[in-house]
Amino acid sequence: MNILVISHKPPYPPVDGGTLATLNMCIGLAKAGNRVTVLTLSSQKHPSSLDIIPDHIQNLINFEIVHTTIKTNIPGYIRNFLFSKRPYNIERYISLSFKRLLIKNLKNQDYQVVQIEGLYLYPYLKTIRRHFKGLISIRTHNVEHQIWDKIEKNENSKPRQLYFKFLAKRLARIEHKLSKMVDALVSITEPDRQWFINNGFTKPSITIPVGYFTDDITSDADPVDFPSICYIGALDWLPNIEGLKWFLDWVWPIIQAEIPGIEFHIAGRNAPEDFAERLMIERNIIFHGQVASASAFLSRCPIMIVPLLSGSGLRIKIIEGMHLNRTIIATSIAVKGIDVKHKEHLLIADKPEEFAHAVCSVINDPSFGKQLGKNALEYAKSNFDAVKLAHELTNFYEKILQ
């Protein structure tokens, strides 16, 4: 099949879970025998160019990149709030240059499938339908409004709480209309797919989790001194900041009291200035900022934490950590959509005392932690092979097109 994938941010470099999910699926689709073109926006926040994409990836995927400036500021939020019906985090991705290149692609190429990566390119659906008669699919990385619902409930500032509630309602309105706009739904988790079905999605749908290429995950990074724990995540995404602050405020002091010499290694791009300053001055915290390789960073620490309090979709870094044989401690929200078992594949804890106890337990009993990592690796190999999952998606599309 000839497949066009459109994305609001470049899959390469894979700087966060979303970009990695898009990149691995596109590579998988190409290795499954499809011709794959990626049309993507590149902005100052998520920059990319053909020059930095490795040849072995460009040999599999045709990339077309539109460079644009995406501005987010208070006047923009206010104008959007008063004069637009679209959520601001969707409206900011509207680009005339991108629309023109999209139309050109649809007219000049014989695509069988157009796959939209996430909700943020929703405004282009009418354009796609007008110029394309094949299968339009949306791959939902999350149920977006659920993220903002949970952020709103955890927010203390009344103005921000009001805005997040307003944003969640706008996003939910769009998500309820998707069945009218697309021909198929691909969800990363089964709970997300079920939400769409329960809320009016009547077209064909399938759950395809994020895949990995196990043979490609290698690292020669030197391990840090034991004991140590690590965290990696984009620090310009509110759920990540919220969860990490919760861990630092309520969990980290308990762990330090029991294991005074423990180190906490944190990696993440675009941290707010005040938060970055906190990470750089707190005792026994080593802040790495953005790292060149997530797998190399994770390979240095035996224990990985994922303290997420709000969110939807699949925590892609957990899948990567499982492939890297890490011992993982996470909240129940973080593992939602992954059919793992507490104390078999990882440890799940939602209260500060429970989370701290889980971390200390695998430090004090390394053999237990190693067994969890071994079990996690076997689970990941069986359930998250990127090429196998891409074949499943290809078969799904072929059945619809018959």
The Cα radius of gyration reads 21 Å
Annotation field: number of helices: 16
- The CATH superfamily name of the largest domain is Glycogen Phosphorylase B
Mean of pLDDT: 91
Structural class: alpha/beta
Could you give the count of β-strands?
13
For the sheet with most strands, the description reads: 7 strands, parallel
Arrangement of strands in the largest sheet: 3-2-1-4-5-6-7
**What is the terminal separation in angstroms?**
12 Å
Q: Hey, roughly how much beta strand do the residues contain?
A: 15-25%
Name the helicity range: 40-55%
CATH fold node name of the largest domain:
Rossmann fold
Shape: globular
CATH class bucket of the largest domain: Alpha Beta
Stretches with pLDDT under 50, minimum 5 residues: none
CATH architecture of the largest domain: 3-Layer(aba) Sandwich
H/E series? EHEHEHHHEHEHHEHEEHEHEHEHEEHHH
Total of domains: 2
Note down, in words, how this protein is organized.
The structure is a single chain. With 402 residues, the protein is of the alpha/beta class. The relative contact order is 0.12. It folds into two domains: 2-211 and 385-401, Rossmann fold (3-Layer(aba) Sandwich); 215-383, 3-Layer(aba) Sandwich (Rossmann fold). Helix 7 runs antiparallel to helix 8, helix 10 (238-258) packs across helix 14 (352-364) and helix 14 (352-364) crosses helix 15. It has a seven-stranded parallel beta sheet, sandwiched between helices. Strands 10-9-8-11-12-13 form a six-stranded parallel beta sheet, sandwiched between helices. It has 16 helices and 13 strands.
